[in-house]
UniProtKB/TrEMBL annotation:
SUPFAM superfamilies: TPR-like. PPR repeats lie at residues 104-138, 204-238, 308-343, 380-410, 411-445. Keywords: Repeat. It comes from Capsella rubella. This is DYW domain-containing protein. Belongs to the PPR family. PCMP-H subfamily.
């Protein structure tokens, strides 16, 4: 076909513009004209149609355009390989790569980058080795992709750093930027700083942005802000990535006033409607905004002109971090899909976290099924880690372990989640065995690992082992114990009745003891009836949390146990004077995908009469086999209690009502999972043991501290709680 040069040039220019602007409508129109032979068939033009559809997320159109290319060249293959890799179909990308008649360095770089996105470190390294063996030239893009593929494997990153220096690749700013980013992600801030300041004249905007982010990730917000000011002073261009990095630094500082001021500057500069900057703002307000943080996030979200997947993920994450807003997280996840966004691994991690807060087994399984159907290869390990937490928080330790065992690859977070699950379910021996398995597999523990391990020791009374693990933190693993680790040790000693030792431990802490440490000590004092130390712990908590009801309630209950009714009345009077109210006991259970909520001495549930009748009959059966109600938990003065008042109060505790409803509403043999907002009371703990034996059912109760798994009249905690 004859065509004039100007016609081809005009067509080409329009096509290139549509590719650059991701203008799918114009691109499709041009493709229709191209197919109708308005211009002659050309591999060059066909390649750009493949590129257009790839950039617009239309993979099927991209593949069709590739298949219709009469004489595909290496560029054609590189474009379609990149398209499949970006669409998380790395196995198809590899198949197409293997079909390239004569691959070039760009072909290898494209697939290595795809493996990096999929977090397939080994495959990327094998391809790199093959590339060198075949004599292909390695460049800065090769190294940058390979560094990204290493993720947090700092040993490999260090080896690549040596290779880069010896090969002269340290003169590439892109390679150095990758080292700054991934040293930081691997926890090696010192090495990241060294690379950044060693770059001298080759630093670009990406270098500065990467270093600002690195400081923010390591809670060095002040240094990040100082670097931002230096960047402006030296005349570097400030873009949306820089601004998002600064927001990350402000978040690490928990600096609400500074963040608000910076938000005003963003509005004046016109960046507040940018999706990338908006993600940073939502992350900031969700973590630093306090009670009204999510309402600020919603305002930011509504101002964004074109919310992308990252923005939706940040919004879902913000909701999931606020337990009472977890249902909003699930709603946002559904809405995100309705408008056409396909969830990625981050989406599933965030919504799975929200489902964990909701304690909805059915909803959690639906999300798990959707994750499987989505075929997400990218960072699948993070999704599996979230699923482990989801299942154990829903009382299903068996499915949590099943997910763990089926993982093709595990990291330290995987082990931390599973160890924590065992600890919270009272399976201390299994938790410690898994910790040893983790060490044997060559995975080094981190500070979170030791929180889980020490918690496991505390829940099962392994004082000597706990002390040993606490000492190994610094001696063997060079991890400095933090406030959380000291709090776990105080809890461990307190539960074991070593109250004087626990008090000495809290006094000798290198940090100021936080509310968690004093609360643990106060709980131990109640268990072991040490009134003097309890008063000290309660007073410390009252100073730290003046509006919290817990120290007042626990102290009043201890006075009631000891028969000190005047002191108890004084504490309650103080609560009334400060307008502090005890949170009512509330329990809920999911039956047939519907959540049923029960509140102590509340008659609002539509089946409450039937529940009370069932519970009354159950109590008769329980008493026949030895159950005796522990009336001290009624917290009523004996000579002031009316006829049957103590039994009435205890018999209508929310957890008993929820368990009774579950037993009467489900089939024999079906496991029950009840969640309570407060700690389970001593009488209810004893009663549910009897209920499990009489009904022949397994009953799991999740209170605000741990899980209690009741079966055959016994609890997984071994009455050590």
């Amino acid at each position: 076909m004859n065509q004039t040069p100007w016609k081809f040039k005009s067509f080409r220019d329009l096509l290139l513009k549509s590719v650059a602007e991701r203008d799918l409508f114009t691109g499709k129109t041009l493709h229709g004209l191209y197919v109708k032979s308005i211009v002659a068939s050309s591999t060059y033009l066909s390649n750009h149609f493949v590129n257009l559809y790839s950039k617009c997320g239309c993979l099927s159109y991209a593949k069709a355009a590739f298949d219709s290319t009469e004489e595909p060249n290496v560029f054609s293959y590189n474009v379609i390989v990149k398209a499949y890799a970006k669409d998380s179909k790395i196995h198809i990308a590899r198949q197409l790569f293997d079909e390239i008649p004569q691959p070039d360095t760009v072909s290898y770089n494209t697939l290595i980058s795809g493996y990096a996105d999929a977090r397939e470190t080994v495959a990327a390294m094998v391809l790199f080795i093959r590339m060198r063996e075949l004599g292909f030239e390695v460049d800065g893009f090769t190294l940058s992709g390979l560094i990204a593929a290493c993720c947090d494997r700092v040993g490999l990153i260090k080896q690549l750093h040596c290779f880069a220096v010896s090969g002269g690749f340290d003169s590439y700013s892109s390679v150095n930027n990758a080292f700054v980013t991934y040293y930081s992600k691997g926890g090696l801030l010192k090495e990241a700083v060294s690379v950044f300041y060693g770059m001298d004249e080759i630093r670009d905007e990406v270098s500065w942005n990467s270093m600002i982010v690195a400081y923010g990730q390591h809670k060095e917000g002040a240094k990040a802000l100082a670097l931002y000011k230096e960047m402006i002073f030296k005349g570097f261009k400030i873009d949306m990535f820089t601004l998002a990095s600064v927001l990350n630094a402000l978040t690490s500082l928990d600096y609400l006033i500074g963040g608000r001021q910076f938000h005003c500057k963003l509005i004046k500069a016109g960046f507040h409607q940018n999706s990338h900057v908006g993600s940073g703002l939502i992350d900031f307000y969700s973590k630093c905004g306090g009670r009204h943080g999510m309402s600020e996030c919603e305002k930011v979200f509504q101002e964004i002109l074109s919310p992308d997947l990252v923005l939706w993920n940040t919004m879902i994450s913000g909701y999931s971090m606020n337990e009472e807003l977890s249902e909003e997280a699930v709603k946002s996840f559904i809405q995100m899909q309705r408008i056409g966004h396909r969830p990625d691994d981050c989406s599933f991690v965030c919504v799975t976290s929200a489902c964990s807060n909701l304690s909805s087994p059915s909803q959690g399984k639906q999300i798990h099924g959707l994750a499987i159907k989505s075929h997400i290869p990218s960072n699948r390990i993070s999704v599996n880690n979230a699923l482990i937490s989801l299942y154990y928080k829903n009382g299903n330790l068996q499915d949590a372990r099943r997910v763990f065992d089926r993982m093709p690859e595990r990291n330290v977070v995987s082990y931390n989640c599973m160890i924590k699950g065992y600890a919270q379910h009272g399976h201390g021996t299994e938790a410690l065995h898994l910790y040893q398995q983790m060490l044997n597999s060559g995975i080094a523990p981190n500070n979170i690992t030791f929180v889980a391990v020490l918690s496991a020791c505390a829940h099962c009374g392994k004082v000597d082992e706990g002390q040993k693990y606490f000492n190994t933190m610094k001696e063997i693993f060079k991890i400095e114990p933090e406030v959380e680790h000291y709090s776990c040790m105080i809890d461990l000693l307190g539960r074991a009745g070593k109250l004087e030792e626990a008090e000495r431990f809290i006094d000798a802490m290198p940090y100021k003891p936080g509310s968690v440490a004093w609360a643990a000590l106060l709980g131990a004092c109640r268990k072991h009836k040490n009134m003097a130390l309890a008063e000290r712990a309660a007073n410390e908590l009252m100073v730290m949390q003046p509006l919290a009801a817990t120290p007042y309630v626990m102290l009043a209950n201890m006075y009631a146990d000891a028969g000190k009714w005047e002191e108890m009345a004084s504490v309650r009077k103080s609560m009334r004077g400060k307008r502090i109210r005890k949170k009512p006991g509330c329990s809920w259970i999911e039956v047939k995908k519907k959540k049923h909520v029960f509140v102590a001495e509340d008659w609002s549930h539509p089946m409450i009469r039937e529940v009370n009748d069932y519970l009354e009959e159950m109590m008769k059966k329980m008493k026949k086999v030895g159950y005796v109600m522990d009336k001290k938990w009624a917290m009523v003065k004996e000579d002031g209690a009316g006829e049957g008042e103590e039994e009435m109060r205890l018999g209508h505790h929310s957890e008993k009502l929820a368990v009774a409803f579950g037993l009467m509403s489900t089939r024999d043999g079906e496991e029950l999972v009840v969640v309570k907002n407060l700690r389970i009371c001593g009488d209810c703990h004893n009663a549910i043991k009897f209920m499990s034996a009489v009904a022949g059912r397994e009953i799991i109760v999740r209170d605000n501290l741990r899980f209690h798994c009741f079966k055959d009249g016994k609890c997984s905690c071994g009455d050590y709680w």
